[in-house]
Automatic annotation (TrEMBL):
Residues 252-273 are annotated as: Disordered. It comes from the Eukaryota. It holds the Pfam family Pyridox_ox_2. This is Flavin-nucleotide-binding protein. InterPro entries: Pyridox_Oxase-rel, Split_barrel_FMN-bd. SUPFAM superfamilies: FMN-binding split barrel. Gene3D superfamilies: Electron Transport, Fmn-binding Protein, Chain A (2.30.110.10).
Length: 273
């Protein structure tokens, strides 16, 4: 019997309203977008500022209690931070109120651009993209074993298998200067665009315009270059795990951009435009 696909609950603040057919709520889809993003943008409120703060951070979805959990399972987001940074201090200072979810409220965004969509008119230009937003509450990881799990998880997200090819475990000073946040997810959503340009019928029927303006998609994807040795590196050649990752990541990124050229069929009753 096939396993039922889990989805995040729809909340007023997480539901995709504009072009709702592009909305996705599958845990697997959202976690995949987050885990394949090398940089996440984390938003939070601070009483000392009239504006919401937003920080670029590195993080990864995982489960300390169930380390073999798949992307379509319930996971938590681990974020890496410096011990005295504002977000860490705010998390440390957030009181534990039994009547409310524990932790600092966070919104986390991740996105990938798969192509430049060039249409007949400026208003119809767009991007092929995959984006995701998570909402939840963050607490400091204090258990040493869980902290090491999260640090290894995040390190291997930068380059798979990198953790064991470094000096590990971290020393006492490194453990003291590094903090890890665990964000328990309340809900989340993704929004994805694929396919060709969409223009107004009147413009598409204008032969002069069609002959004058090029339309289509310019695929866009991240490419890792050839690794460059550091000034004190004494390892000859590029390690196999690193070269293999760069080749596979480049191929995967190109494949995603090419697949985005094909428009997904709209879901029945979704009100797709």
């Amino acid at each position: 019997m096939p396993r039922q696909e889990l989805e995040y609950p729809n909340e007023p603040y997480s539901t995709v309203k504009r072009l709702s057919a592009r909305g996705r709520y599958s845990l697997k889809t959202i976690h995949q977008i987050v885990n394949s993003s090398h940089m996440l943008h984390v938003s939070f409120n601070s009483s000392d500022s009239p504006f919401p703060a937003i920080l670029p951070m590195i993080g990864q979805m995982g489960s300390f209690d169930r380390p073999s959990a798949d992307l379509d399972d319930v996971l938590e987001l681990y974020l890496h931070g410096y011990v005295s940074s504002r977000i860490i201090n705010l998390t440390r200072a957030t009181p534990s109120d039994p009547s409310t979810p524990k932790g600092l409220p966070l919104s986390v965004a991740a996105s990938h651009v798969d192509g430049l969509v060039l249409a007949l008119t400026p208003n119809s230009h767009s991007l092929n993209y995959r984006s995701a937003v998570l909402f939840g509450h963050a607490t400091l990881v204090t258990d040493v074993a869980e902290k090491l799990y999260a640090m290894e998880l995040i390190t291997n997200a930068i380059v798979p298998d990198r953790w064991r090819h470094t000096r590990v475990p971290p020393n006492a000073a490194e453990m003291q200067s590094t903090s890890v946040l665990r964000m328990r997810i309340a809900t989340g959503s993704a929004k994805i665009r694929t396919g060709a340009p969409h223009d107004e019928r009147g413009d598409i029927e204008d032969e002069e315009l069609l002959e004058r303006v090029w339309t289509g998609v310019v695929p866009m994807y991240q490419v890792f270059g050839e690794p460059v040795s550091g000034p004190y590196n004494k390892v000859e050649g590029v390690p196999g795990y690193l070269g293999e990752y760069a080749r596979e990541a480049n191929a995967d990124s190109k494949r995603a951009a090419e697949e985005a050229l094909v428009e997904e069929a709209p879901k029945k009753g979704s009100g797709a435009e």
